[in-house]
Amino acid sequence: MIAPPEDGRLRLTILGGYLGSGKTTWLRHQLYEGGFGKAHILINEAAETPVDDTLLASQSAGVTMLSGGCACCTGKDDLVNALKALCDAHSRQKPEDRKTAQIVLETSGLADPAAILDAIQQDSVLVHHIRVAEIIVLVDAMNAADQLRTEHLGRAQIEAADRIILTKVDAVPDAVLATVVATVRHLNPVARIEAAVKGEPFALPDLPAVPPYDLPRISDGGEPIQPTKIDIPDDVDWATFSIWLSALIYARGDDLVRVKGVFDTPAGPLLLQAVRKSVQPPELLPPEAAQRQNQIVFIGRGYKGDDLRRSLDYFTRG
Amino acid sequence: MCNACGFPTRPGHWTDAGADNAGDRLRLQMRRAQILNRLLNGYGFKARPPGHGPGFALSSFSGRTTLLPDLEAVWQEAAQQLGHPIDPLDPRFTAAEPNS
Protein backbone atom coordinates (compact mmCIF):
# COMPACT_ATOMS: atom_id res chain seq x y z
CA MET A 1 0.00 0.00 0.00
CA ILE A 2 1.11 3.55 -0.60
CA ALA A 3 2.32 5.17 2.60
CA PRO A 4 0.37 8.37 3.16
CA PRO A 5 2.38 11.44 4.10
CA GLU A 6 2.75 12.44 7.72
CA ASP A 7 -0.05 14.84 8.53
CA GLY A 8 0.57 15.38 12.23
CA ARG A 9 -2.20 13.05 13.32
CA LEU A 10 -1.53 10.38 15.90
CA ARG A 11 -1.21 6.93 14.37
CA LEU A 12 -3.47 4.23 15.74
CA THR A 13 -3.06 0.54 15.11
CA ILE A 14 -6.11 -1.57 15.90
CA LEU A 15 -5.30 -5.10 17.01
CA GLY A 16 -8.30 -7.38 16.83
CA GLY A 17 -9.10 -11.05 16.77
CA TYR A 18 -11.47 -13.53 18.31
CA LEU A 19 -11.38 -14.48 22.01
CA GLY A 20 -8.23 -16.44 22.72
CA SER A 21 -6.60 -15.80 19.38
CA GLY A 22 -3.38 -14.69 21.10
CA LYS A 23 -3.58 -10.91 20.85
CA THR A 24 -1.79 -10.12 24.11
CA THR A 25 0.92 -12.71 23.49
CA TRP A 26 1.58 -11.34 20.05
CA LEU A 27 1.54 -7.72 21.19
CA ARG A 28 3.93 -8.43 24.07
CA HIS A 29 6.37 -10.00 21.72
CA GLN A 30 6.12 -7.14 19.25
CA LEU A 31 6.74 -4.61 22.02
CA TYR A 32 9.65 -6.61 23.35
CA GLU A 33 11.18 -6.57 19.87
CA GLY A 34 10.49 -2.86 19.56
CA GLY A 35 7.91 -3.39 16.81
CA PHE A 36 5.75 -0.43 17.70
CA GLY A 37 8.45 1.82 19.14
CA LYS A 38 7.33 3.54 22.30
CA ALA A 39 3.65 3.22 21.62
CA HIS A 40 0.95 3.92 24.13
CA ILE A 41 -1.06 0.76 24.63
CA LEU A 42 -4.81 0.73 25.13
CA ILE A 43 -6.22 -2.57 26.24
CA ASN A 44 -9.90 -3.31 26.19
CA GLU A 45 -11.26 -6.26 28.09
CA ALA A 46 -14.90 -7.14 27.63
CA ALA A 47 -14.93 -9.00 30.89
CA GLU A 48 -13.19 -7.50 33.87
CA THR A 49 -10.45 -10.09 34.09
CA PRO A 50 -7.20 -8.99 35.67
CA VAL A 51 -4.47 -8.93 33.07
CA ASP A 52 -0.79 -9.09 33.80
CA ASP A 53 0.28 -5.91 32.10
CA THR A 54 3.64 -5.38 33.75
CA LEU A 55 5.62 -6.52 30.73
CA LEU A 56 3.53 -4.35 28.44
CA ALA A 57 4.07 -1.39 30.75
CA SER A 58 7.83 -1.74 30.78
CA GLN A 59 8.08 -1.82 26.99
CA SER A 60 5.71 0.96 26.11
CA ALA A 61 5.07 4.63 26.69
CA GLY A 62 2.12 3.79 28.88
CA VAL A 63 -0.77 1.41 29.27
CA THR A 64 -4.41 2.29 29.68
CA MET A 65 -6.88 -0.40 30.61
CA LEU A 66 -10.45 -0.07 29.42
CA SER A 67 -12.43 -2.65 31.25
CA GLY A 68 -15.92 -1.20 31.17
CA GLY A 69 -17.24 -3.37 28.38
CA CYS A 70 -16.37 -3.95 24.75
CA ALA A 71 -15.06 -0.79 23.04
CA CYS A 72 -17.16 -1.27 19.93
CA CYS A 73 -20.46 -1.15 21.81
CA THR A 74 -21.01 -0.61 25.55
CA GLY A 75 -17.50 0.70 26.23
CA LYS A 76 -17.43 3.07 23.27
CA ASP A 77 -17.56 6.23 25.38
CA ASP A 78 -14.66 5.06 27.52
CA LEU A 79 -12.60 4.39 24.42
CA VAL A 80 -13.41 7.78 22.90
CA ASN A 81 -12.50 9.54 26.17
CA ALA A 82 -9.24 7.60 26.50
CA LEU A 83 -8.29 8.45 22.91
CA LYS A 84 -9.12 12.11 23.48
CA ALA A 85 -6.88 12.19 26.55
CA LEU A 86 -4.06 10.70 24.49
CA CYS A 87 -4.58 13.26 21.72
CA ASP A 88 -4.46 15.99 24.32
CA ALA A 89 -1.16 14.67 25.70
CA HIS A 90 0.15 14.28 22.16
CA SER A 91 -0.49 17.92 21.33
CA ARG A 92 1.66 18.96 24.32
CA GLN A 93 4.64 16.85 23.36
CA LYS A 94 7.79 18.26 21.84
CA PRO A 95 7.69 18.19 18.04
CA GLU A 96 10.45 15.56 17.82
CA ASP A 97 8.57 13.22 20.18
CA ARG A 98 5.31 13.88 18.44
CA LYS A 99 6.48 12.31 15.19
CA THR A 100 7.19 8.93 16.72
CA ALA A 101 4.19 8.79 19.01
CA GLN A 102 1.59 6.15 18.25
CA ILE A 103 -1.16 4.16 19.88
CA VAL A 104 -1.87 0.46 19.73
CA LEU A 105 -5.40 -0.56 20.70
CA GLU A 106 -5.82 -4.16 21.68
CA THR A 107 -9.52 -4.75 21.30
CA SER A 108 -11.53 -7.27 23.23
CA GLY A 109 -12.17 -10.57 21.49
CA LEU A 110 -15.75 -9.52 20.98
CA ALA A 111 -15.04 -6.30 19.13
CA ASP A 112 -15.73 -5.61 15.49
CA PRO A 113 -12.80 -3.42 14.33
CA ALA A 114 -15.07 -1.70 11.82
CA ALA A 115 -17.28 -0.43 14.63
CA ILE A 116 -14.27 1.08 16.39
CA LEU A 117 -13.18 2.74 13.18
CA ASP A 118 -16.68 4.13 12.89
CA ALA A 119 -16.62 5.50 16.45
CA ILE A 120 -13.44 7.43 15.61
CA GLN A 121 -14.89 8.77 12.35
CA GLN A 122 -18.05 9.93 14.09
CA ASP A 123 -16.21 11.92 16.73
CA SER A 124 -15.53 15.45 15.58
CA VAL A 125 -12.34 15.75 17.64
CA LEU A 126 -10.81 12.34 17.05
CA VAL A 127 -11.36 12.46 13.31
CA HIS A 128 -8.89 15.34 13.12
CA HIS A 129 -6.34 13.92 15.54
CA ILE A 130 -6.17 10.21 14.84
CA ARG A 131 -5.17 8.34 11.74
CA VAL A 132 -5.89 4.63 11.72
CA ALA A 133 -2.64 3.25 10.35
CA GLU A 134 -3.51 -0.41 10.20
CA ILE A 135 -6.08 -2.95 11.32
CA ILE A 136 -4.32 -6.17 12.32
CA VAL A 137 -6.49 -9.19 13.04
CA LEU A 138 -5.24 -12.38 14.65
CA VAL A 139 -6.80 -15.68 13.70
CA ASP A 140 -6.35 -18.77 15.80
CA ALA A 141 -5.47 -21.49 13.28
CA MET A 142 -6.52 -24.23 15.70
CA ASN A 143 -10.05 -23.00 16.23
CA ALA A 144 -10.68 -20.98 13.09
CA ALA A 145 -12.78 -23.68 11.43
CA ASP A 146 -15.39 -23.78 14.19
CA GLN A 147 -15.40 -20.04 14.77
CA LEU A 148 -15.81 -19.13 11.13
CA ARG A 149 -18.55 -21.69 10.60
CA THR A 150 -20.69 -20.43 13.43
CA GLU A 151 -19.67 -16.89 14.34
CA HIS A 152 -20.52 -13.91 12.23
CA LEU A 153 -18.15 -11.83 14.36
CA GLY A 154 -15.15 -14.00 13.44
CA ARG A 155 -15.87 -13.37 9.77
CA ALA A 156 -16.48 -9.65 10.28
CA GLN A 157 -13.12 -9.27 12.02
CA ILE A 158 -11.29 -10.91 9.13
CA GLU A 159 -13.19 -8.86 6.56
CA ALA A 160 -12.15 -5.60 8.20
CA ALA A 161 -8.42 -6.42 8.42
CA ASP A 162 -5.49 -4.90 6.53
CA ARG A 163 -3.16 -7.59 7.84
CA ILE A 164 -4.10 -11.01 9.15
CA ILE A 165 -1.80 -12.99 11.40
CA LEU A 166 -2.49 -16.68 11.90
CA THR A 167 -1.50 -17.82 15.37
CA LYS A 168 -0.82 -21.23 16.88
CA VAL A 169 0.20 -22.46 13.43
CA ASP A 170 2.70 -24.94 14.93
CA ALA A 171 -0.16 -26.83 16.54
CA VAL A 172 -2.04 -27.74 13.38
CA PRO A 173 -1.11 -30.02 10.48
CA ASP A 174 -0.30 -28.40 7.13
CA ALA A 175 -3.52 -29.67 5.59
CA VAL A 176 -5.59 -27.79 8.17
CA LEU A 177 -3.39 -24.73 7.89
CA ALA A 178 -3.81 -24.71 4.11
CA THR A 179 -7.58 -24.77 4.47
CA VAL A 180 -7.51 -21.99 7.06
CA VAL A 181 -5.34 -19.84 4.79
CA ALA A 182 -7.68 -20.51 1.85
CA THR A 183 -10.72 -19.62 3.95
CA VAL A 184 -9.18 -16.41 5.26
CA ARG A 185 -8.11 -15.42 1.75
CA HIS A 186 -11.61 -16.15 0.53
CA LEU A 187 -13.08 -13.85 3.17
CA ASN A 188 -10.57 -11.06 2.63
CA PRO A 189 -8.68 -11.29 -0.65
CA VAL A 190 -6.71 -8.06 -0.19
CA ALA A 191 -5.27 -8.43 3.31
CA ARG A 192 -1.69 -9.58 3.82
CA ILE A 193 -1.58 -12.97 5.52
CA GLU A 194 1.23 -13.80 7.93
CA ALA A 195 1.74 -16.35 10.67
CA ALA A 196 3.17 -16.36 14.17
CA VAL A 197 3.95 -18.84 16.92
CA LYS A 198 3.84 -17.42 20.46
CA GLY A 199 4.33 -13.97 18.99
CA GLU A 200 7.35 -14.87 16.87
CA PRO A 201 6.98 -14.49 13.12
CA PHE A 202 6.65 -17.84 11.42
CA ALA A 203 7.24 -18.33 7.70
CA LEU A 204 4.25 -20.08 6.20
CA PRO A 205 5.35 -23.32 4.52
CA ASP A 206 4.43 -24.07 0.92
CA LEU A 207 0.85 -25.09 1.30
CA PRO A 208 -1.16 -27.21 -1.11
CA ALA A 209 -3.91 -25.40 -2.98
CA VAL A 210 -7.10 -26.51 -1.27
CA PRO A 211 -10.67 -25.22 -1.32
CA PRO A 212 -11.75 -23.05 1.64
CA TYR A 213 -14.10 -24.33 4.32
CA ASP A 214 -17.66 -24.45 3.22
CA LEU A 215 -18.98 -21.57 5.30
CA PRO A 216 -22.68 -21.84 5.92
CA ARG A 217 -24.80 -18.76 5.63
CA ILE A 218 -25.32 -17.19 9.04
CA SER A 219 -28.52 -15.30 9.64
CA ASP A 220 -26.74 -12.04 10.45
CA GLY A 221 -23.87 -12.59 8.03
CA GLY A 222 -24.80 -13.50 4.49
CA GLU A 223 -22.94 -14.87 1.54
CA PRO A 224 -19.12 -14.68 1.30
CA ILE A 225 -17.64 -11.52 -0.10
CA GLN A 226 -16.23 -11.03 -3.59
CA PRO A 227 -13.60 -8.52 -4.70
CA THR A 228 -14.19 -6.33 -7.76
CA LYS A 229 -11.51 -4.08 -9.19
CA ILE A 230 -12.69 -1.16 -11.25
CA ASP A 231 -10.43 0.86 -13.50
CA ILE A 232 -12.08 4.23 -13.52
CA PRO A 233 -12.39 5.52 -17.10
CA ASP A 234 -10.74 8.87 -17.83
CA ASP A 235 -14.05 10.64 -18.34
CA VAL A 236 -15.23 9.97 -14.77
CA ASP A 237 -14.36 13.02 -12.71
CA TRP A 238 -14.27 13.38 -8.93
CA ALA A 239 -17.67 15.13 -8.81
CA THR A 240 -19.37 12.18 -10.51
CA PHE A 241 -17.44 9.55 -8.66
CA SER A 242 -18.01 11.05 -5.22
CA ILE A 243 -21.77 11.28 -5.88
CA TRP A 244 -21.90 7.71 -7.09
CA LEU A 245 -19.77 6.32 -4.27
CA SER A 246 -21.59 8.25 -1.54
CA ALA A 247 -24.95 6.96 -2.85
CA LEU A 248 -23.56 3.45 -3.09
CA ILE A 249 -22.19 3.52 0.45
CA TYR A 250 -25.43 4.96 1.77
CA ALA A 251 -27.58 2.33 0.08
CA ARG A 252 -25.24 -0.67 0.24
CA GLY A 253 -22.89 0.16 3.09
CA ASP A 254 -23.68 -2.98 5.04
CA ASP A 255 -22.79 -5.16 2.06
CA LEU A 256 -19.71 -3.22 1.01
CA VAL A 257 -17.11 -4.52 3.40
CA ARG A 258 -14.19 -2.57 1.96
CA VAL A 259 -13.58 0.12 -0.62
CA LYS A 260 -9.99 1.03 -1.28
CA GLY A 261 -8.15 2.93 -3.97
CA VAL A 262 -6.64 6.14 -5.24
CA PHE A 263 -8.63 8.73 -7.16
CA ASP A 264 -7.30 11.75 -8.99
CA THR A 265 -9.00 15.01 -7.94
CA PRO A 266 -8.39 18.71 -8.66
CA ALA A 267 -6.37 18.89 -5.42
CA GLY A 268 -4.25 15.81 -6.18
CA PRO A 269 -4.50 12.03 -5.80
CA LEU A 270 -6.75 11.03 -2.91
CA LEU A 271 -6.41 7.80 -0.98
CA LEU A 272 -9.95 6.52 -0.39
CA GLN A 273 -10.70 3.91 2.23
CA ALA A 274 -14.00 2.73 3.60
CA VAL A 275 -14.99 -0.05 5.94
CA ARG A 276 -18.72 -0.69 5.63
CA LYS A 277 -20.55 2.63 6.08
CA SER A 278 -17.60 4.42 7.53
CA VAL A 279 -15.38 6.33 5.10
CA GLN A 280 -12.07 7.51 6.44
CA PRO A 281 -11.16 11.12 5.70
CA PRO A 282 -9.36 10.77 2.35
CA GLU A 283 -5.64 11.44 2.45
CA LEU A 284 -4.00 13.61 -0.16
CA LEU A 285 -1.01 11.74 -1.58
CA PRO A 286 2.08 13.29 -3.14
CA PRO A 287 1.63 13.13 -6.94
CA GLU A 288 4.59 10.81 -7.47
CA ALA A 289 3.34 8.29 -4.89
CA ALA A 290 0.17 7.52 -6.75
CA GLN A 291 1.02 4.96 -9.38
CA ARG A 292 -2.20 3.06 -9.05
CA GLN A 293 -4.37 6.06 -9.69
CA ASN A 294 -8.03 5.69 -10.55
CA GLN A 295 -8.23 2.08 -9.66
CA ILE A 296 -10.68 1.23 -6.91
CA VAL A 297 -11.19 -2.15 -5.27
CA PHE A 298 -14.64 -3.02 -3.91
CA ILE A 299 -15.03 -5.98 -1.60
CA GLY A 300 -18.54 -6.92 -0.73
CA ARG A 301 -21.51 -9.16 -1.23
CA GLY A 302 -25.01 -9.05 -2.58
CA TYR A 303 -24.24 -7.52 -6.00
CA LYS A 304 -22.56 -8.39 -9.28
CA GLY A 305 -19.22 -6.76 -10.06
CA ASP A 306 -20.41 -5.85 -13.55
CA ASP A 307 -23.35 -3.97 -12.06
CA LEU A 308 -20.91 -1.63 -10.33
CA ARG A 309 -19.28 -0.82 -13.66
CA ARG A 310 -22.60 -0.39 -15.47
CA SER A 311 -23.98 1.81 -12.72
CA LEU A 312 -20.93 4.07 -12.70
CA ASP A 313 -21.20 4.24 -16.47
CA TYR A 314 -24.84 5.32 -16.17
CA PHE A 315 -23.94 8.03 -13.66
CA THR A 316 -21.20 9.29 -15.97
CA ARG A 317 -23.17 9.34 -19.18
CA GLY A 318 -26.63 9.87 -17.76
CA MET B 1 -17.14 26.66 9.80
CA CYS B 2 -15.89 29.65 7.85
CA ASN B 3 -18.45 32.43 7.90
CA ALA B 4 -17.63 33.65 4.43
CA CYS B 5 -17.51 30.45 2.44
CA GLY B 6 -19.17 27.91 4.67
CA PHE B 7 -16.45 25.25 4.50
CA PRO B 8 -15.78 22.81 5.93
CA THR B 9 -19.32 21.54 6.18
CA ARG B 10 -18.65 19.12 8.99
CA PRO B 11 -15.39 17.78 10.25
CA GLY B 12 -14.14 15.14 7.93
CA HIS B 13 -17.00 14.58 5.50
CA TRP B 14 -15.06 12.71 2.90
CA THR B 15 -16.80 13.99 -0.23
CA ASP B 16 -15.52 17.50 0.50
CA ALA B 17 -11.94 16.38 0.08
CA GLY B 18 -10.45 16.77 -3.35
CA ALA B 19 -11.01 20.50 -3.76
CA ASP B 20 -8.82 22.67 -1.60
CA ASN B 21 -9.41 26.15 -2.92
CA ALA B 22 -12.55 28.24 -3.19
CA GLY B 23 -12.70 28.05 -7.01
CA ASP B 24 -12.42 24.27 -7.10
CA ARG B 25 -15.00 23.95 -4.36
CA LEU B 26 -17.50 26.11 -6.21
CA ARG B 27 -16.92 24.23 -9.47
CA LEU B 28 -17.29 20.92 -7.66
CA GLN B 29 -20.54 22.05 -6.06
CA MET B 30 -22.03 23.25 -9.37
CA ARG B 31 -21.00 20.14 -11.23
CA ARG B 32 -22.34 17.92 -8.48
CA ALA B 33 -25.72 19.64 -8.59
CA GLN B 34 -25.88 18.93 -12.36
CA ILE B 35 -25.08 15.25 -11.91
CA LEU B 36 -27.39 14.92 -8.93
CA ASN B 37 -30.27 16.31 -10.93
CA ARG B 38 -29.73 13.84 -13.72
CA LEU B 39 -30.17 11.16 -11.14
CA LEU B 40 -32.77 12.67 -8.84
CA ASN B 41 -35.17 13.72 -11.64
CA GLY B 42 -36.39 10.16 -11.93
CA TYR B 43 -37.42 10.29 -8.30
CA GLY B 44 -39.11 13.68 -8.40
CA PHE B 45 -36.33 15.58 -6.63
CA LYS B 46 -34.33 18.59 -7.68
CA ALA B 47 -31.04 19.72 -6.12
CA ARG B 48 -29.31 23.07 -6.37
CA PRO B 49 -26.48 24.81 -4.56
CA PRO B 50 -28.06 26.85 -1.76
CA GLY B 51 -26.18 29.90 -2.95
CA HIS B 52 -24.40 30.89 0.21
CA GLY B 53 -22.38 27.92 1.37
CA PRO B 54 -21.78 24.24 1.09
CA GLY B 55 -24.29 21.49 0.54
CA PHE B 56 -27.50 21.40 -1.45
CA ALA B 57 -31.07 22.56 -1.36
CA LEU B 58 -33.20 19.54 -2.14
CA SER B 59 -36.73 20.16 -3.43
CA SER B 60 -39.21 17.34 -3.76
CA PHE B 61 -42.24 17.05 -6.03
CA SER B 62 -44.41 18.16 -3.12
CA GLY B 63 -42.66 21.52 -3.09
CA ARG B 64 -40.86 20.86 0.14
CA THR B 65 -37.31 22.23 0.11
CA THR B 66 -34.70 21.13 2.61
CA LEU B 67 -31.22 22.58 3.10
CA LEU B 68 -28.69 19.80 3.49
CA PRO B 69 -25.03 20.07 4.48
CA ASP B 70 -23.51 17.35 2.29
CA LEU B 71 -24.13 14.43 -0.05
CA GLU B 72 -24.71 11.94 2.73
CA ALA B 73 -27.52 14.12 4.05
CA VAL B 74 -29.00 14.27 0.54
CA TRP B 75 -29.21 10.47 0.35
CA GLN B 76 -30.59 10.32 3.84
CA GLU B 77 -33.32 12.88 3.16
CA ALA B 78 -34.21 11.24 -0.17
CA ALA B 79 -34.45 7.83 1.52
CA GLN B 80 -36.67 9.26 4.22
CA GLN B 81 -39.08 10.84 1.75
CA LEU B 82 -39.12 7.88 -0.64
CA GLY B 83 -39.26 5.23 2.03
CA HIS B 84 -36.20 3.46 0.59
CA PRO B 85 -32.66 4.55 -0.27
CA ILE B 86 -31.72 5.50 -3.84
CA ASP B 87 -29.65 2.49 -4.80
CA PRO B 88 -27.09 2.96 -7.59
CA LEU B 89 -27.31 -0.80 -8.19
CA ASP B 90 -31.04 -0.60 -8.87
CA PRO B 91 -31.81 -2.27 -12.23
CA ARG B 92 -32.71 1.12 -13.72
CA PHE B 93 -29.06 2.16 -13.35
CA THR B 94 -27.43 -1.13 -14.24
CA ALA B 95 -29.32 -1.96 -17.44
CA ALA B 96 -26.83 -2.55 -20.26
CA GLU B 97 -28.22 0.36 -22.30
CA PRO B 98 -28.94 3.58 -20.41
CA ASN B 99 -32.60 4.37 -20.97
CA SER B 100 -32.68 8.11 -20.45
Automatic annotation (TrEMBL), chain A:
SUPFAM superfamilies: Hypothetical protein YjiA, C-terminal domain, P-loop containing nucleoside triphosphate hydrolases. GO terms for cellular component: cytoplasm. Zinc chaperone that directly transfers zinc cofactor to target proteins, thereby activating them. Zinc is transferred from the CXCC motif in the GTPase domain to the zinc binding site in target proteins in a process requiring GTP hydrolysis. InterPro entries: CobW-likC_sf, CobW-like_C, CobW/HypB/UreG_nucleotide-bd, P-loop_NTPase, Zinc-reg_GTPase_activator. Residues 225-316 form the CobW C-terminal domain. It catalyses: GTP + H2O = GDP + phosphate + H(+). This is GTPase, G3E family. Keywords: Chaperone, Hydrolase, Nucleotide-binding. It comes from the Bacteria. It comes from Roseovarius litoreus. GO terms for molecular function: hydrolase activity; nucleotide binding. The keyword Cell wall biogenesis/degradation does not apply. Belongs to the SIMIBI class G3E GTPase family. ZNG1 subfamily.
Automatic annotation (TrEMBL), chain B:
This is Uncharacterized protein. The lineage of its organism: Bacteria, Pseudomonadati, Pseudomonadota, Alphaproteobacteria, Rhodobacterales.
